[in-house]
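Large ribosomal subunit protein uL29
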Amino acid sequence: MAVGSKELNIEALDGFDNARLTEELQKAKAELFNLRFQAATGQIENTGRIKVVKRDIARIYTILRERELGIRENVDVPADDVKESKKKTKKSKKKAEEEDK
């Protein structure tokens, strides 16, 4: 079983562009700072969350590095726009088929 946030799994992160990945990285680092601060002051409720956030940070760094090395494809369009563009291409294919008939 993989440890990490459900919303920041590999499939979701792979669909993000580099700008969105760096944004998620900043959020995760800020959360880790806050969790460490809570742990130091004895106010932390869920100590396991620290491990989860560390794994998320490592996962984001890995994807960024793989893209830098050319192992993983770069994404130019944010993940939300990809779904919309796929819908548009399906519609345009159907229109082209209808025009050919």
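thats it. The mean pLDDT is 83. The longest helix spans residues 18-41. bye
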